[in-house]
């Protein structure tokens, strides 16, 4: 199966048993890339609450939680919230995506102190234009995070990217 098919089956066919397999593949990619310095915390890209309720799960959270377990580091889903619905962005241009996610995320009340000076890994299922993860990374940096890196399962190429 191709990466996009795997993600499609996870998200839309509700095959959540795929998430730990995706996390293992991502972990193997980190090892193959020679990444030795792990972050302090792994967070998923959050979904808007009504969308997550409708789907029944956040695929990025399922992947991130298992990846954190494999790496032996802290997983937190309570660092960043999606405070506005951004709708389906599949057909939006890169510029439209960037405008769409602007001010769509907030750091949860009380988390700034806990994340200050930390290195955070943002995990998502697919990287398209980077608008979502870049928006989150910038928010985290503004909140005092030392470093915010991004890893996704599917993209144009395997990627571990320093967002900011």
Automatic annotation (TrEMBL):
Classification via Pfam families: Pribosyltran
Domain Phosphoribosyltransferase: 21-156
Family assignment from sequence similarity: Belongs to the ComF/GntX family.
Protein name, per record: Phosphoribosyltransferase domain-containing protein
Lineage, broadest ranks: Bacteria, Bacillati, Bacillota, Clostridia, Peptostreptococcales
């Amino acid at each position: 199966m191709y990466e996009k098919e795997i993600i499609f089956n996870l998200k839309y066919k509700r095959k959540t048993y795929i998430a730990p397999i995706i996390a293992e593949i991502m972990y193997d990619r980190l090892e193959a890339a020679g990444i030795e310095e792990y972050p302090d915390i792994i967070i998923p890209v959050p979904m808007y609450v009504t969308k997550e309720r409708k789907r029944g799960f956040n695929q990025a959270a399922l992947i991130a939680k298992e990846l954190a377990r494999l790496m032996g580091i802290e997983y937190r889903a309570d660092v960043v919230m999606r405070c506005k619905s951004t709708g389906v962005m599949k057909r939006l241009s890169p510029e439209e995506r960037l405008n769409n996610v602007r001010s769509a995320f907030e750091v949860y009340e009380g988390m700034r102190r806990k994340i200050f000076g930390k290195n955070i890994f943002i995990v998502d299922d697919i990287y398209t234009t980077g608008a979502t993860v870049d928006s989150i990374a910038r928010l985290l940096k503004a909140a005092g995070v030392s470093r915010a890196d991004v890893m996704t399962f599917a993209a144009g190429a395997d990627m571990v990217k320093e967002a900011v």
